From TrEMBL:
It comes from the Eukaryota. Residues 588-609 are annotated as: Disordered. Residues 30-157 form the CMP/dCMP-type deaminase domain. Transmembrane segments: none annotated. Keywords: Glycosidase, Hydrolase, Multifunctional enzyme, NADP, Oxidoreductase. This is 5-amino-6-(5-phosphoribosylamino)uracil reductase. One of its GO terms (biological process) is carbohydrate derivative metabolic process.
Length: 609
């Protein structure tokens, strides 16, 4: 299969003749920029499948001595956290040809603090040069891979640091954009938020009557499905639910399904709505504390999650979603809520679909309500604006806030500790963990640590993650073809997120397929899996033992059984099991030390005698 990069055309593997004198520095920079852009393009391939996670792409190239011919040897991208890293996939595709080659990465590798697979794959493959688009934006991961690669003798060039040229501006921008959600999360401590709307040529999102179907074309609506599929959640207001009764699904033939969020202060919502059907996609309603308790109970009976806020506003909701680990939010709300979100400073990008239609109407709603501006000089201007014709419509997109370039702003924890040894990456008495990118993210069931445990037949099977094992065991021993198929699908799920979605979906839709003793046995199932995981990987054992004296809390604000809950009301069983395991491992370690000491003393006595 061939693909194009600028003026060069590639197949896999690819040989291409440079179109200018490649021995010059500018041409060398152009080639580096081209392959970094390709790595960013590959990284974007996973968006919409297993969100949320950082996007990683890798391109491995070789060249003749004169650099007149460039050969693309292998490529890869990270499908999702817990799956094979992009670098390892590219190395496996390259084989022995990788010795002396150059690897291009859109971002410094590291999806988990204890996972060194990417660096090891590059080093063991014999690659001699690595070009990196941007350093990792998270403090505890930033710079670690760069230092590790350089310590192994590899030449590592980072755009904007070791490679400074106008030729790299486009490549650097590509790297920033493809991981914009993670960059905004690191810089602003809120999820990356995109406001999307469709309007007529005269700026209306509905007629005066409120009727809005359909402003944009079918092709534009298909693009909206894609935008939803790239998001962790989709937000609408109460007016949208009452007026449009939306489904808010990503109807693009599979992939990631974002959670649907309704923001409503009063809960003046209809009892019959498409969003209350959570068969395929979960729904959450964010409301003000105390609003319509009876309706909250009704929503709960439908399986809809209700989260109360002291004061319902976009900033507090985004803070909550930050704690929940979300990276990307799509706002498809009306003008009032859109104006509130913009005023709160939580909207980072805008996608406006403009249809070649005029509807008029003095009272017809516009996409953004009152912002309090009285002069045109106060208008907010988009940057990095792009225009794309989609069928008869025009898509105008741009950023309200620039994509953060964290290169000069966020030192690594190693660098910070060197300046002030008293600085700690976490509280000394309570250690929170949740997502794999957290400092203690390896404690997560979604971390990339396969375990060997028995399957439904009692045969030992390599489960890709603890989450795979846990979700599958809900259906072990159930004599039903659907349960058996679900179990097999979970075993083969590409990522822990997919395994979790499959297990939870069937458990909710068909509770009769779940083994009858699951509620009484699930803690034991989880503990067996955790014990296997931490016993298999010495570095995890060391990490767990290093937390001695600290309380471990899974910082899930919504899981009140395994997590600590939003206000500490959760049972935190995952944290409890890890602390129990830590105690056992500590006792075993102490016993081994005592046995070793006893053996040394016995040898000394024999020597003296």
């Amino acid at each position: 299969m061939a693909f194009a990069l600028g003026s060069l055309t590639f197949s896999s593997p690819v040989t291409c003749k440079a179109t200018s004198i490649v021995s010059s520095s500018s041409s060398s920079h152009a080639l580096d920029a081209t392959f970094i852009k390709r790595a960013a393009e590959l990284a974007d391939s996973s968006a919409g499948f297993t969100a949320p996670h950082p996007n990683f792409g890798c391109v491995i190239t070789s060249a003749t001595k004169e650099r007149e011919r460039v050969v693309v040897l292998g490529e890869g991208y990270l499908y999702g956290e817990g799956t094979t890293p992009a670098e390892l996939l590219a190395v496996e595709a390259t084989g022995e040809l990788s010795r002396g080659a150059t690897a291009y990465l859109n971002m410094e590798p590291a999806d988990c603090a204890t996972d060194h697979t990417s660096v090891s794959a590059i080093v063991q493959a014999g690659i001699t040069r690595v070009v990196i688009g941007i350093r990792h934006p998270l403090q505890h991961l930033r710079g670690n891979a760069v230092r590790a690669l350089r310590s192994e003798g590899l030449l590592v060039d980072v755009l904007g640091e070791d490679l400074q040229s106008k030729a790299f501006e486009g490549a650097l921008k590509s790297c920033l954009v493809v991981n914009a959600p993670l960059l905004y999360r690191a810089a602003s401590r809120v999820p990356f938020s995109v406001l999307k709307y469709a309007m007529t040529l005269d700026g209306k999102i509905a007629a005066s009557s409120g009727h809005a179907s359909w402003i944009s074309s079918k092709m534009s609506r298909s693009r909206v499905f894609e935008l939803r599929g790239r998001s962790d959640a989709v937000i609408v207001g109460g007016n949208t639910v009452r007026r449009d009764n939306p489904h808010l699904t990503a109807r693009h033939g599979g992939g990631h399904l974002p959670r649907r969020i309704v923001m409503s202060k009063t809960l003046d919502l209809p009892k019959v709505a498409n969003l209350w059907d959570d068969t395929e996609v979960p729904t959450m309603v964010a409301t003000q504390r105390g609003a319509r308790r009876s309706f909250q109970k009704f929503l709960a009976s439908k399986g809809v999650e209700v989260v109360e806020f002291d004061m319902l506003n976009p900033k507090d909701v985004m803070d909550y979603f930050y704690d929940r680990g979300y990276l990307s939010i799509l706002w498809e709300c009306g003008g009032t809520l859109a104006a509130s979100a913009i005023s709160s400073g939580v909207i980072h990008k805008v996608h406006a679909f403009v249809a070649p239609k005029i509807i008029g109407g003095k009272n017809a709603p516009s996409p953004v309500g009152e912002l309090g501006m009285v002069e045109m000089t106060q208008a907010l201007e988009l940057i990095d604006v792009q225009y794309e014709q989609i069928g008869p419509d025009m898509l105008v997109s741009g950023f309200l806030q620039p994509v953060p370039d964290l290169t000069p702003n966020i030192p690594s924890m190693d660098e910070t500790s060197a300046i002030d040894p008293n600085v700690s990456a976490y509280e000394s008495n309570i250690i929170f963990f949740f997502k794999t990118w957290d400092p203690h993210g390896a404690f997560s069931n979604f971390s990339l640590h396969p375990i060997q445990m028995p399957d439904e037949n009692g045969d030992y099977f390599t489960w890709p993650s603890v989450e795979h094992y846990y979700q599958a065991y809900k259906f072990v021993g159930v004599n039903n073809p659907i349960a058996k198929k679900c179990l097999e699908d979970i075993k083969n799920a590409k990522s822990p997120e997919e395994a979790a979605r499959l297990g939870r979906k069937i458990q909710k839709q068909r509770p009769d397929l779940v083994r009858s003793d699951w509620e009484s046995s699930k803690i034991d199932v989880m503990y067996r899996a955790l014990k296997c995981k931490f016993s298999t990987y010495p570095n995890l054992t060391s990490m767990l033992l290093s937390t001695s004296g600290s309380v471990l809390v899974e910082a899930s604000p919504h899981d009140l059984f395994w997590g600590g809950g939003r206000d500490g009301e959760g049972l935190n069983y995952l944290g409890r099991l890890l602390m129990k395991l830590r105690s056992e491992l500590s006792a075993d370690s102490l016993s081994n030390e005592n046995n070793a000491t006893s053996g040394e003393e016995e040898n000394e006595v024999k020597t003296l005698s």
